[in-house]
Fold this protein.
Amino acid sequence: MKQITILSTVIILGLMVPFTGGAQTAENQQQPADSNKVSEKQALQQWSDSIALDRYNQNKTNMTILAAWAGVNIIQGAISATNATGSGPHFFKMNAYWNVVNLGIASLGLFQLRKELNKQYSLTQNHLAQQKLEKILLLNTGLDLAYITTGLLLKENGNRTSNLQNTGFGNSLLLQGAFLLVFDLVQYGNHRRNGKLLETQLSKLQIQAGPNGIGLSLPL
């Protein structure tokens, strides 16, 4: 909307200039430059919007995958826990319990994404949102490694003490932690590519003084 207002102002001011040779020459020199600036800003905003949309689509796909994984584990865990032997019942029970939480996280994530669909971001806001998401994913990978480590310790203790519950729970944590680690690393890799694109674009911006104060502009 600001770009359209700027362009309209330029055209109106041009029409108000006395129709003389000198004035016409000045207008012909100024208007293409202003039009180019508006066009450049519009293109930059459209590009930024495409990055935000890609982030939305990736997050929606990832939350859907997590919900599907959770659903399969809950159903299989509830069924298999009744007929498994040894440490199996504990393994399947923990899978089901664990994925009740995953299903809640996926459902909440999909609900929050509905608010993001029509949200408008400036380039800097888009970059901050991207950075926040990448930091969350890195934190998640650290937690995933903690789950795997805990699973190894539980399994080792269960095997050493013949504790079937610890063995089953340990195997479950190993499986769930490994899945989440791969899941979060793939997400981080995909989002990091967009983050690098935003960082590259922001590095091209320059601080300039304008009629309304200090602002950022993209050199043509």
In short: Residues 1-31 have pLDDT under 50 and may be disordered.
